[in-house]
Design brief:
Blueprint (H helix, E strand, L loop, with lengths): L25 E4 L3 H17 L3 E3 L9 E2 L2 H7 L1 E2 L14 H15 L7 H5 L1 E10 L15 E8 L7 E4 L3 H5 L13 E4 L5 E6 L4 E3 L8 E9 L1
Antiparallel strand pairs: 1-9, 2-3, 2-4, 4-5, 5-11, 6-9, 6-11, 7-8, 7-10
Length: about 220
């Protein structure tokens, strides 16, 4: 029998990451610090005038509310659940316009046709004021396609924003020593004045305690389409 050489194809030189089921989360920055200060002033004025505001930090999961000034200053407060329609108030018009314009710009990365960006509008908007040591426990925003947070004031060490992988229990089932990056089930991002994050409402998130020595002030919002 005659001998023959078996044809051997060229080895693959390049591969590519498929990246399906990735989380559509985006971040951007505003350097208009005047409007950041305006947001902080509006939040402070609303807090001063509003009774029975909801507490954050340790009071969040119990849905605690109080008029006690000392407790408010210790745990922090949010207008969520009391007034989460700030975008409809005349004095909040300029901040609301900034919020939606930034969110729309970030959502241009969500799809090539800009479906989300062209249709986005603010469904709800609120502020939260975190004193030194203040934080928000892990939570989601139910029945919302995209939510976001804008940091009107966040000094150094104001407490990272933490996103939690909703599939953590599946990845933990195959955890091994020296696990590769795909086994990581939390991602932390440092925060600073003027930064915005937009992310799916179903994505669990929390924050680390504020250790900046000054209030951390955020504007939270949910988007509708």
């Amino acid at each position: 029998m005659g001998s023959y050489k078996r044809a051997i194809g060229k080895p693959m030189l390049e591969g590519r990451k498929l990246g399906f089921f990735e989380t559509p989360a985006y971040a951007g920055e505003c350097k208009n610090y005047d409007i950041c200060e305006e947001m902080c002033a509006l939040a402070a004025a609303h807090e001063e005038q509003t009774k029975n505001l909801r507490l954050i930090s340790d009071g969040w999961n119990t849905r605690a509310r109080t008029d006690d000034k000392e407790l408010r200053e210790k745990q922090g407060v949010t207008s969520h659940g009391t007034n989460d329609r700030l975008h409809l108030l005349e004095e909040w018009e300029r901040p609301a316009n900034l919020i939606i314009s930034m969110a729309k710009e970030l959502l241009k990365h969500a799809d090539r046709e800009h479906w989300y960006s062209s249709r986005a509008g603010i469904e709800s908007m609120w502020y939260s004021m975190y004193p030194d040591g203040g934080y928000i426990p892990e939570h989601i925003h139910s029945n919302v396609a995209f939510s976001g947070v804008f940091y009107a004031k966040a000094e150094h060490d104001a407490g990272d924003l933490v996103f939690h992988d909703p599939a953590w229990h599946l990845k933990s089932a195959v955890w091994v020593n020296d696990a590769p990056a795909q086994a990581i089930t939390k991602r932390q991002f440092p925060v600073y004045t003027g930064v915005m994050f937009v992310f799916p409402g179903w994505l669990p998130h929390s924050t680390m305690p504020n250790k900046s020595g000054e209030d951390r002030v955020i504007i939270g919002f949910n988007l509708g389409f």
